[in-house]
Structure formats: C-alpha cells, structure tokens
Specification:
7-stranded mixed β-sheet, inorganic pyrophosphatase (n-terminal core), alpha/beta, 5-stranded parallel β-sheet, 2 domains, binds manganese (II) ion, Diaminopimelate Epimerase, Chain A, domain 1
Amino acid sequence: MHPLVGELRQRILSLRPPIFIVPHVNADVDAVASAVGLQSFLDRHGVESVLFFPSLSAPAAKLLRDFAVDYTTNADVSDKDVLVVDTSSSSMLPMDLSAARRVFAVDHHRGGDLNGCIFDTPSLSEAVAELLMMDGIRDRRAYALLAAGVYADTAGLVAAQPSTLVTLGRLLELAGMGVGDVARLVSHRPSVSERIARLKALRKMEIHRFGEFIVVTARSGAYEGSVAWLFVLAGADVALVAGENRVIARMSDEFMIRTGIDLTDLFSAVSVKIGASWGGHPGAAGMHVADPIAAISAVLSELEKLLQGKGYRFVRKSY
Ligand SMILES: [Mn+2]
C-alpha cells in the first residue's frame, strides 16, 4: 500500500459534499478512470459527488461511452468543494476555480502549484485503486476503468514499477479481466486530425545534434504530445513541440539513463529563468509560456549546459 493512500482517504472524506470531481483539460484515460474510481469510493461512503468533465481526449470519451459512465460537461462550482484529478497545476485546469470553496488536487505529477496529495506512481489510477481496495470496495466497472488507466499511463506497462504490476494484478482479478482485454479497451487509432497533425509536424521538424544525442523540435497547432512521442519513436532522444502557448516535451528512456538528465531537471531550471509554469514527469512534461519558440531556444541552451556539465563535449549542429 502506498504510504499516501491513508492520507488521501482522510483528506477527501473531509471535503464538503456534493464534491465536484474535475480532471485536467483534455482529460486522458488515467484522469477519467481515477475520477470514476474516486466517485465509487465516495459513493460507498455515502458522500455525494458529481463527475464534471468539461474537456475530454478522444480515447477517454470512448472509454466513458463503452462503460456508460454518466458525467456532466457544464456545472457551477461556486462555493463548492472541488477534487482536481491527475493534475496539480492551475494552468492545466479546464476552467477557473477561483470561486470554489476549496480545491484539493489528487495527482502524480511534479511541479504543480495546487494543494493536495501528490503520488510518485507511474499512473494515478494505481493509487486510486489502492484506495478502493483498502476499504474492500467491490465495483467491477471502476476496477476495469482503473486497469485501463494504469495500462494507458504506463504506455502499455513499459513505464510500470514493480508495485504497479502488483496493483494491476489485483485489479485484473477484481475486474475479471486479462491484460489483453485491458489493451483492447485502450487501443485507439488516432483520429484523422491527430494523424494529420503528426504528419505535418514530420514535414516541418528541425533536427539538432548535440554530439551523440539527437533533439527534434517542431511547431504543431494541436496534438503536441502525440507529435513529440512520434519523434522519440522515430529516433529523437529529446523532442520539443511548440503549441500555441505551450511547449510539450518527451525524452527517451535511454537518454535519461545514460545522461542522468530528465525533463523535471530541464523544465524546472528553464521555467525559473523564463518565468513559466510547468508540470510533468521525468520522460513527459509540458510548460505553459507566452512565447513557445523562445522557450524552446531556452530549453536547448539549458540542455546544452546540462550535458556539458556532465562532461559531454560537442558542437551543436542543426539539420
Ligand atoms: Mn496520469
């Protein structure tokens, strides 16, 4: 059992019902699965809650349809207690929560500015699953969704920790599913617009060589995370994609292991220098900035400095 689960249990049971459960903007499978799991927990404790999902990713919307989950896309949270799920950065909220009575975040990303319980697990769903299991809750639908959340946020278990797999094993038993069933739940061919965004970014990308490492940068009007992930699959060690007012980055595992540098080091250093907010994990992070192109230059300079500080000697080249 994760040491924070007991505290999470206590903190959310002290909120005032009805509790509005709100995931981050463009909520992914892990975010909505965690939200449904939290509602199941509150239900079993007789605490009224509302799933408020104003902004969903396509895979999350499909999963909610498949499981016939009821949620609202429009609500007034003035003077209400809000449970923010899968983010602790106010810049990732899908709406202004300044009129809420209390805002409490349940998250597993570093770098956020909101108060809450911040886990260090690869998925938030595994932490929420432990909360339900702690109270012996039986809810097959919630467990199936949470298994999907674990699978999705660990990129098909690639990023799982040993404890993730222990929790997933129990989740599968409780949901009566196999790993193949979960993989099918989250398998999703990207939409035409997402595939077009990826392909357009391939046409416009810039390749930078930092000695033995490759950094790829591009601009994309949408799906920046998907584009960045594609660059890593194509051979980039670091991918930086500029959106309208943000920079989304991915790093290969190999780069992090070899250099000991990850995106939390890089983005926390750069965000201080340029006055931006950021959130994310070692291998996947995002930064909110007014000028994303300038921010990418700052990230490239910082990366060069960090690599040289580790003893790598090279002259930067661009292709
Ligand atoms: Mn997550």
